[in-house]
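Morning run. Coffee first, then this:
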Amino acid sequence: MAALAWLLIPLVAAIGAGLWGTWANRTRKVRSDGPELDGYARFRAAMEKPRSGT
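And here it is:
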């Protein structure tokens, strides 16, 4: 009986990993790169401004 318990542990872990993998790779709303690119453009514009005051 103890050997059966030791065999069930990896089986339960594999089933849990499969369920987690399915959940982690679920279809999500497709999001474009627009917000990230807009933020990068603002960052570049801020870095290109000349420094004032020193």
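The chain has two helices and no strands. Good start to the day.
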